[in-house]
Structures are given as structure tokens and as C-alpha cells.
Amino acid sequence: MKKKQFICIFPQGENIHLMKDVGMIPYSLKKKGYYDTTISFYENQRNLPFFKKYFDGVKYKKINKISRYQGVNIFIFLLRNYRKYDIVMFIHEGGLKFFAALFFKIITFNRIKFYFKLDMNSLVLNSDRFANKNFLFRIKSYILKHVGLMTVESEKLNTFLNNESYLKTRYLPNGFLNINKFNNIKEKTIITVGRLGTKEKDTEVFLRALENMDLNDWKVKFIGPIDEKFYHVVEKFYANNPSLKNKVYFLGNIDDRDMLLQEYMKAKVFVLTSNSEGFPLVLTEAISNGCYIVSTDLAPVYDVTNNLEFGEVFSIGDFDQLAIILQKIVNDETKLPNPDDIRRFAAHNFDWNIIAESLYKYLESDF
């Protein structure tokens, strides 16, 4: 029997996105044998080294950038190719995407299924976007219910959207690629991974926390590209805290996945200071390697820490609170859970293969 054809359309995709949900969902669906899968970006395939290295069996189809409007390019791409596919995946919501989905469902007599991975952040919980439940709200609710499957990455957001919005969603978290390589020797190291110094990552909060604590024999590693405007902040930090030069390290971006994995394996604690995130994939990478999570109070943190069994949260921007939490860890006042328990929890709940199985069941149901 011919397998159904699944395509993930993400025009702005780059090489790094292949190792995130954009690439991992098609990869895992193919690996599990559920569908034949395709990934589509604007980018030429030759500029995607991860695709050649890791995505055996997954197809690639380039999207032509005809218009400066992404929605127009998506619509034209589907108009030319819709007969080839049974399931179309989009990342994020959007009016033009919803319109395209509705249009192609109509002209194919509901043959094509559409899947929207919404990737919403916790700010939605405090917005008034869904507050006015007027006639238009009810119309949107009716239309979107028939457009396709929509998932969000945290239980908290899923509950909120189903109770307070015109979106009817299912819970589907982000995951990690389980390669079963463990290093049981944990070091007294705290790490953070991401685009250091950007407004969203709020890295300066971490530096200010470090200024207000004693690391003793612990080390801290900042991993990731540094925003150009942040260099002077780092220089000022070292100038004001010369004793931390041999304890706090900026390693830069680590492109080699095995080298990055080693840093996760060695670390006892992972810190996230973001003020706005959907579901940071670094969280699942951290718990899959047995790291204790210390993060800003974001919705997905409760999911990845089993409701704070394997981590703690602090208020966004509160470096004093972060310093107190980390100092207790450094002083051994906070007893960290066994890394193997964290790994087991991650493997049972956030392995991409398990997530692919859940998605497959959603897609093969009537939503």
C-alpha cells in the first residue's frame, strides 16, 4: 500500500532548523515508517549540510521566492504541488496559511489534511487577544475547527487555548533525538546555550546573578553566538569581576553536535533566562542529558521538569532570585536529583519518536 505523503513547509528555514522541530518531525515520522516525508525551504539543498548528513530517506523540495510575501509564495507552491501531498505541516499560525488550508481542502474535497504547529509563547496567557468572544470570535472558531490539526507545546497553553480562544488545540511538546550516549561523570558545571545577548534571551540577568554569588569550585559556561552589542557587557563583567575569569567561560558557538552534546553531558545544571519563548529545544536537550533546570517562569518548563521535580523557576528578570537558587545548588543546600532519573523522564516523554507516534495518532484521527 502506498504511504501517505507528508510535507513540512517552512520557507525561512536554514540548516540549523533541521535539528529542531521543523526537521525532526518529518525525520521521525519517516523513521517510524508512518509517512513518506518532504521538507521545503527557500534555501538550496546544497546549503543544508545537516540534511545530507542526517536525513536519509527524507526528501527535499525547494520553494521558489517569487514574491516578497511569504504567504503568496506558500500559496503558489501548493497550487503547483498540492496533488502530490496528503498532509501539509506549517509552523506558526497566520491568516494566509489558514486561507490556503481552507482553499485547498475545498478544492480537494477535504482530501488534504493540514497541520499547524503553533509554537506559541507564554505571553499569550496574559494577552487580551482572545478576550472578546463576539460574533467574529464564533465565526473564527467554527472555520478554524475545520481547517486542520493545531498543536501547542505546553499543557498550560493547551488548556488556556481550548478554554479561552477560538483555537482548538492538542498538546504536542518538542523533543530530542535519543542517541543513548550517556556520560555518567557530571562536573560542577552550570551551562546555558543560545543566542547570547539578544533581547529575548536576556543573558545579562545571568551575569548579574553571578556577580551576587560565590561559585566556590563550580564553573559556568556560556555556549552560543554572542550578539555584537553584548560584547561590551561581557568585557565590563570581567573588568568588574576579575576573579571570575577562571570560572566563567564564553565558549562561542559550537557547531559540532557531538561536542555540544559533551557539554550537556558534563553539566549538572542548565540555566535559561529567556523573557519570551515558545518551547526552547535546549530544555529537552538539557534534560535528556540529566541536567537540572533553572529557568524563568515559562509554561513549558513545568512540562520538562515534571512540575518542578527536576528544576526550579524564577521570575523573569529577577537576577537576585536566580542568584539565590544557584547559590543553594553550589552550597549543596539543594539536593539535585539523580541525573539518570531525569534522563529516564526525558526518554519516556520527549523522545522525538514518541512525539511522532502521538502526532501520527492525531493525524489519523478526525482531530
In short:
Helix content is 38%, strand content 15%. The chain has 367 residues and is an alpha/beta fold. The chain has 2 domains: 5-175 and 351-364, Glycogen Phosphorylase B (Rossmann fold, 3-Layer(aba) Sandwich), CATH 3.40.50; 187-349, 3-Layer(aba) Sandwich (Rossmann fold), CATH 3.40.50.
Write up this protein.
The chain is of the alpha/beta class and 367 residues long. The protein is built from 14 helices and 13 strands. Strands 3-2-1-4-5-6-7 form a 7-stranded parallel sheet, sandwiched between helices. Helix 3 runs parallel beside helix 4. The longest helix is centred in the first third of the chain and has 13 residues. The mean pLDDT is 93.
CATH architecture level-2 label of the largest domain: 3-Layer(aba) Sandwich
Structural class category: alpha/beta
**Count of individual beta strands:** 13
Report the uncertain regions. Answer: none
Shape: globular
- First-last Cα distance: 23 Å
What oligomeric state best describes the polypeptide chains here? single chain
Output the strand order for the largest sheet: 3-2-1-4-5-6-7
CATH fold label of the largest domain:
Rossmann fold
CATH superfamily of the largest domain: Glycogen Phosphorylase B
The proportion of strand residues reads 15-25%
Cα Rg: 22 Å
Largest beta-sheet details: 7 strands, parallel
What share of residues is helical? 25-40%
Query: How many structural domains?
Result: 2
Q: What is the overall number of helices?
A: 14
The top level CATH class name of the largest domain: Alpha Beta
